[in-house]
Design goal:
It is an enzyme of class 2 (transferase). It catalyses: 5-methyltetrahydropteroyltri-L-glutamate + L-homocysteine = tetrahydropteroyltri-L-glutamate + L-methionine. By secondary structure, the protein is an alpha/beta fold. The protein is built from 28 helices and 21 strands. The chain binds glutamine and zinc ion (ZN). Zinc ion binds next to loops.
Length: about 775
Amino acid sequence: MTVSHILGYPRIGAQRELKKATEAYWAGEQSREALETQGKTLRQAHWQAQFDAGLDYVSVGDFAFYDQVLNVSVLLGAVPERFNASDEIARGDIDLDTAFRMARGRAPSGEPAAACEMTKYFDTNYHYLVPELHQGQRFALACERLFEEVDEAQETGFAPKVTLTGPLTWLWLGKTKGNSFDRLTLLEGVLDVYVEVLNRLAKQNIEWVQLDEPALVQDLPLAWQQAYERAYHRLQAAPVKLMVASYFGGLGDNLSVATRLPVAGLHVDAVRAPEQLELVIDRLSPHQVLSIGMIDGRNVWRSDLAVLRERLMPLKVRLGNRLWLAPSCSLLHVPVDLEAETELDEELKSWLAFARQKLNEVVTLTRLLDHRATAEDETRLAVATQALDARRASARIHRGVVKERLARLSPADSQRTSPYAKRAVAQRRELALPPFPTTTIGSFPQTNAIRATRRAYKNAELDVDTYETKMREEIAYAVARQEALDIDVLVHGEAERNDMVEYFGEQLDGFAFTRFGWVQSYGSRCVKPPIIVGDVSRPTPMTVRWSEYAQSLTDKPMKGMLTGPVTILQWSFVRDDQPRETTCKQIALALRDEVADLEGAGISVIQVDEPALREGLPLRQSQWQAYLNWAVESFQLSVAGVEDATQIHTHMCYSEFNDIIGAIAALDADVITIETSRSDMELLEAFQDFAYPNEIGPGVYDIHTPNTPDVAWMVTLMEKALEKIPAERLWVNPDCGLKTRRWEEVEPALANMVAAAKALRKRY
Ligand code: GLN
Ligand code: ZN
């Protein structure tokens, strides 16, 4: 029979119980014991859900109070020295607070220390804690939690399959500290502990251990490919069956590496890379099982069970009992339970499946394949088919005008009329800015008063007029402050925006919002991404009245502020019935209308933020260019309709631009503001090397700290910038939006920034 399983379940809880429990614990409002109890309750509930759905195994090892990669670091005793954990490591019992200190810098007990770096897990919005690797580092089994959780599951009568980040992916995700060295030199030490872990699990009668190796879907250097073979030869000695799990893409040139591993099973992602299935099966040895990830673990759409069954039938014939079915990756990346969405309309709801619903999909698909479908399975199959037919035909999804407009586009639509050099002349005339013009990135402090006003309006405790009046007061305040500071290009401050994507999604047609569709972003932080359901269009202007009002308060140019199409796409659940490119261009066209209306309302500087441009990059370099082409085109589509004299800004805040500098230049924004202050302007080298032709505002101070930046320091940074970029193309601005800061911090910081700009004007 076909085996059904999952790679992991969301741990945050349907009501974000884990968030509440950990935050209460950190704040000293809840005991350690209460936190542990909450953890246990959640694990039991999640196993119960998997058991009730009829899965053959429940997943153990996917639970974490903070992060599953951090769990492995703790398991291996890989705790940086500054956390003073050598006694705990020696005892083999690293304290939970030590893990929290690694994650957050502090915990209810133990000395605070600088937290470990956090970064995005492959191409997801989930952030993991980066393992810190030292030359000659030693590893030792240093935590019992995993084994305790196995006991816990078994005591309740569940059949656990253990899941753990694999040794090579753990090293791959790690960063070397101190002298740079080859991370693979640490592999043997890491494997020693993995072998010990596997032996311990075998003693607990664990049959299957899933080792997550998503590094296998990336471009791996030859030495790493070879290390895979070496590593798994060592691990096979342990008396458990290993399943190596690849996901987030195809194995590509790692296909033979993966299929030749001496392991009992392999999991592949058939959602992102359906074409690889036959190739993998051809290469599998006759005793190996293949787990096929057929249900999308990265998105919220209901599966077409009938279609999947057809696709799987011939594979079932070839694999027989060696076939396992699963979601494509851990369900960590989707919301927990659709049933909680009592206010979502029935039609939309019928098109969706969250983690709990996906459990049922896996099980039903398994039974359909095995010809042992129950009446309930038959109903699920019929309901899925019906819902998907309805979705395909729905007028809510398909808007002729949007599709026709997209079809009519010509290359000219994504090009400004004149080249930058000519536009710059028109813009100088129009804006009459001093050299080294000063501006900010958009948001000003989101005070408690602002949040309270927005909340009251959302809860219908404030009527529109009162709300709008209050927001205008906030805008007027921000404008007055900027005038007093003598900033050159002003912003309205974004007081009305809850979130830079949600704000636009709520006003665009084609978007839907859930109430409880939370997905873990990092630690206790969750995000609730909008769902792009159908063709996107803009029924009415979204930001124009605010910008127009703000402009009416000042003679200085007021910058209009929009979130770019790629960022809106990247931070949403995207429809799966057309290419992402198409959806992105639809968003771009909606924004293009907004840009045109802003321009028509007399706004002569418009910023379109694209902080997520870089994170949209595919995991394989060979696919980068195709992505960048449509991403750049989408940005351009949104802005290219304006006159020469209208100045287009964009903003990005990731420090690694070097490898996409060509695409950044291709955006052809008149001005780009970027995060550089922490990298000491080094970033600008890439712009210089590329001979980046347009204007740049390298962030002169780091908004992430409350400290007031020094005038002389900012002048020095700009002087470094001047070595690389000519004065007439440099702007002076902070490195990101100021919404997380307080006015008491912002005002002195900006006063110094303006002083720095004025000092530069005297000298250059
Ligand atoms: N305009 C946005 C702000 O200032 C940009 C946010 C961002 O870069 N992520 O808040
Ligand atoms: Zn930013």
